[in-house]
Amino acid sequence: ELKVEQNPLFLSMQEGKNYTIYCNYSTTSDRLYWYRQDPGKSLESLFVLLSNGAVKQEGRLMASLDTKARLSTLHITAAVHDLSATYFCAVDLGFNDMRFGAGTRLTVKP
Amino acid sequence: DAGVIQSPRHEVTEMGQEVTLRCKPISGHNSLFWYRQTMMRGLELLIYFNNNVPIDDSGMPEDRFSAKMPNASFSTLKIQPSEPRDSAVYFCASSLVAGAIEAFFGQGTRLTVV
Questions:
Q1: Which of A18, A36, A58, B84 has the largest CB neighbor count within 10 A?
Q2: DSSP class of residue A83?
Q3: A28-75 pLDDT tens trace
């Protein structure tokens, strides 16, 4: 059975701090996505990681993929309140058949 | 492009009634996905289509659920009869399989079955 495990599931941070969200998966895949969801809203694509060792950065967020370890990370640098949201990783099983993790609900406090 | 368009945005129905959710994918995309999101179960893939053909419907919870994609620009997800436990947000997403891009999500339909 495919497992996509994110941790932590809940994360409360102070503004200005750094933290990492982890996404482990149990199947072979070299393609992984990160999405953001604001409360009551749809999912917005953040990053597409297409190969082992891929690293993408956008503002205070940086995502990486290690396909051998079946691990992706989303690193948050100097968090700000606007980053408060739920973050999902999704593993591509092929043909964009994505299986999502449970999500990490991030709250950034002043 | 207007993105993935779903309708209705909200639906409230009585148990036992038929519910039809609609989705218009992004023009040119050849894969379409239906997801269900609940607090308890998170995001679940229900079914996905490639070039209008259902590829994997193993996520469809019961025979009460059915999905169709009669053409490249339209898909429906039908629940008949609906039950209170079907209450959730249903998302449609589309993508281009041959491209190295992610799937784009619609705004979702919030279904409440009372």
A1: A36
A2: G
A3: 888 999 999 999 999 999 999 988 999 999 999 999 999 999 999 999
pLDDT band at residue B62 under the 50/70/90 scheme:
confident
Burial status of residue A47 (CB atoms within 10 A of its CB: 0-12, 13-18, 19 or more) = buried
Contact between A48 and B31 using a beta-carbon 8 Å cutoff: no
Contacts of B100 in chain A (CB under 8 A): 48, 50
Is residue B26 within 8 A of residue B94, CB to CB? The reply is yes
- Short-list A81, A54, A56, CA closest to A68: A54
Contacts of A62 (CB under 8 A, 6+ apart): A55, A56, A74, A75, A77
Tokens, residue B5: 């368009």
The SS3 assignment for B20 reads strand
The answer to whether the Cβ–Cβ distance between A48 and B101 falls below 8 Å is: yes
Q: Please name the amino acid found at residue B73.
A: S
- The answer to whether A85 touches A38, Cβ cutoff 8 Å, is yes
